[in-house]
Design goal:
The complex is a heterodimer. Chain A is an all-alpha fold. Chain A is 75% helix and 0% strand. Chain A contains 15 helices and no strands. The radius of gyration of chain B is 19 Å and the shape is extended. The two termini of chain B are 36 Å apart. The chains are: A mainly alpha, B mainly alpha. Chains A and B meet through helix 4, helix 5, helix 6, helix 7 and helix 8 of A and helix 1, helix 2, strand 2, helix 3 and helix 4 of B. Chain B: Keywords: Membrane, Transmembrane, Transmembrane helix.
């Protein structure tokens, strides 16, 4: 099915997308985001993690938001498992990217464990924007490779630099973490439901901060998502019932 | 040692969810409710983390130069600035406000 669409795309439009154009787009994303590993290296080292710990995170976790969340929670004195739980929940979205990508990439099973580490926001964004399977694979690989190499290189440079300059707060580098979160969050705030989730999460996260142990308020704030989903579901059910009176009466009888 | 435990748990967990996405047959995670929750969960976490890392120092709420830095980042985002520029704006403005205040 995907193969057919891909073939159709090659024939239609402007004869598909040239490989060079795909590589250029992929490198644009990979280089721009890869360079922000510098901000992570600085933040992590500024939060008190060692050079080895900082680099291990970029090499092994390789999903920016989770890494920032983990070092932020550890810096705030959070329990290591609560900190890891917050970072993990942020990484869960990658499972859904993988789901989309596995159909588009159609990788052999043996290759998948190696490709998995590169399944992140940016590689998915680039891959999904491609018209053919060939360009999907090129886009994914070039974005993944350039981003992975640069992210780890700039993490190292950032961590070494942070240790060299000492007080990273004086340079305003402690603002890099929240700015990265805001930049990741902004494109997600499209509908009223998403804005409601964000608003409730901010209130929970800040309101519970003084009363709960470090790291826990973020996890409680995550409950804003199912809460809004529940309210949304109820509202949709109610409006569906208004539309069909038969269902309405049955429901009211309950 | 505690930090290494947190790193190991995060690394294993984050790799596992990436791999699951590539391995499970389509349909298992395709239920609308699951998809919707997966889309909203990062929104909640990122919003809470942004707020905490801007307005908290340990377990006390504070209002300092980082708030100005985050506002600068927000302006950069509204102006559709590239990712790196957004982060740079936050850092430069925060440092600037601190330099002027200190």
């Amino acid at each position: 099915m995907a193969e057919q669409t891909a073939l159709a795309d090659i024939r239609s439009e402007d004869g598909g997308k040239p490989d060079a154009a795909v590589v250029r787009d992929a490198l644009g994303v990979g280089v721009a985001v890869g360079l922000s590993g510098f901000a992570f290296g600085v933040t992590s080292a500024g939060s008190g993690l060692s050079l080895l710990q900082t680099c291990a995170l970029s090499l092994l976790v390789f999903t920016g938001a989770s890494q920032f969340a983990l070092v932020g929670a550890l810096a705030a004195g959070g329990n290591p498992l609560a900190a890891a739980a917050g970072a993990f929940f942020l990484g869960v979205r990658n499972a859904f990217y993988g789901l989309r990508l596995s159909q588009l990439l159609a990788l052999p099973r043996a290759v998948r464990p190696f490709a998995a580490q590169w399944v992140i926001d940016e590689t998915t964004a680039v891959a999904l924007a491609q018209p053919t399977r060939r360009s999907v694979r090129i886009g994914f690989t070039v974005t993944g490779l350039s981003l992975y190499v640069l992210w780890n290189l700039t993490t190292l440079i950032g961590a070494v630099g942070a240790q060299a300059i000492g007080d990273t707060d004086a340079w305003g580098l402690d603002a890099a973490g929240p700015a990265v979160f805001l930049a990741l969050l902004a494109p997600m705030l499209k509908t009223a439901a998403e804005r409601a989730v964000a608003g409730i999460a901010v209130l929970l996260g800040l309101g519970l901060l003084p009363v709960l142990p470090a790291g826990v308020p973020v996890l409680v704030a995550a409950l804003a998502a199912p809460t809004v989903l529940y309210v949304e579901g109820r509202r949709m059910r109610t409006s569906a019932c208004d539309a069909t009176s038969a269902h309405d009466t049955r429901r009211e009888a309950r | 040692m505690n930090i290494w435990i947190a790193i190991a748990a995060t690394a294993v967990g984050c790799y596992a969810v990436k791999l699951i996405g590539l391995l499970v047959p389509a349909g298992v995670l395709e239920r609308p409710l699951v998809r919707r929750l997966a889309a909203l969960l990062p929104v909640a976490l990122l919003a809470a983390l942004t707020a905490q890392q801007t307005f908290a120092d340990g377990r006390t709420l504070v209002l300092d130069a980082k708030a100005a830095g985050l506002a600068a980042a927000a302006v950069a985002l509204v102006l559709r600035a590239p990712f790196l520029l957004v982060v740079a704006a936050a850092v430069v403005v925060t440092a600037g406000v601190r330099a002027m205040a200190g």
